[in-house]
Design brief:
transcription regulation, DNA binding, two-stranded antiparallel ribbon, DNA-binding, mainly alpha, GntR family transcriptional regulator, Arc Repressor Mutant, subunit A
């Protein structure tokens, strides 16, 4: 059984835009949703009228945003009965592109991005532990139970899903938006470490411990565990960056079992 993101995550994706009127914002919000797995391949998007209502923008703005998504190969629009805009099964981010991006970032910049990501993740985890109801904590446990971390591709998708779940449980719309934005920007790089089976096992174990801390209402433990998790991923990324720069590590070895 595939783990499904809860309704709160979907509501966050379709929340009204802060600055209405820009097609790029519509496209970015929907792109983030596709990257994070909130919108799945083959899924039909809400109608253009419904998207305009939810985002608080003009209908023409939604249409322009969908044009951007079609040009990017993320959605297709079908006419006639049963038509609409549908999510296309997009290829995972090309590993050589990610590796090139890794080469292009200085170690200090990677470290700073990891610190920023950790700060947001820690805050989400702590607030989730302090604000989540018993029922919400149980739903998080159920989500983790069905989430697949057995392969690199599945682990990358579900790692992002887990962080988004924590953001939703924080009950802060701003934290949710920032987590989505940051995952879209840095997640594909940070989650490269999940290609290493040992790192993946450690991250998966920490997921369970974070969920347990949330069930117990232990905000400090949830915060510390989230920090440990991002630290592990960040350290792996910096190690790979250093090895690549020394020429002692093959680029294609970054990804193990996609």
């Amino acid at each position: 059984m595939k783990a499904q993101l809860r309704p709160g995550a979907r509501e966050a994706i379709f929340a009204q835009l802060i600055e209405a009127g820009r097609a790029e914002q519509v496209a970015r919000r929907l792109t983030d949703a596709i990257i994070l797995g909130v919108l799945t391949p083959g899924e039909r998007l809400p109608s253009e009228q419904e998207l305009a209502r939810r985002f608080g923008v003009a209908l023409i703005t939604v249409r322009e945003g969908l044009v951007i998504l079609r040009d990017a190969g993320l959605v297709e629009t079908r006419r006639g009965r049963g038509g609409g805009s549908f999510v296309i099964k997009a290829d995972a981010p090309h590993d050589t592109l990610l590796q090139a991006r890794l080469r292009g970032l200085a170690q200090v910049e990677l470290s700073d991005l990891a610190v920023y990501f950790s700060t947001i993740a820690e805050g989400c985890a702590e607030r989730a532990a302090l604000r989540a109801s018993a029922a919400e904590a149980e739903r998080l446990d159920a989500w983790l139970l069905h989430a697949d971390f057995s392969t690199t591709a599945a682990a990358r998708t579900n790692a992002g899903g887990f962080y988004l779940e924590l953001a939703v449980l924080s009950q802060s719309a701003r934290l949710v938006r920032e987590q989505i934005r940051l995952q879209a920007e840095f997640g594909p790089l940070l989650f490269l470490g999940l290609g290493d089976p040992d790192t993946r096992a450690l991250i998966t174990g920490l997921n369970g411990r974070i969920a347990l801390a949330i069930t117990r209402g232990d905000g400090q433990a949830a915060r510390t565990l989230a920090a440990d998790q991002v630290r592990l991923l960040g350290e792996w990324l910096l190690t790979m960056k250093a090895r690549i720069e020394r020429g002692g590590y093959r680029d294609d070895a970054i990804v193990a079992d996609a």
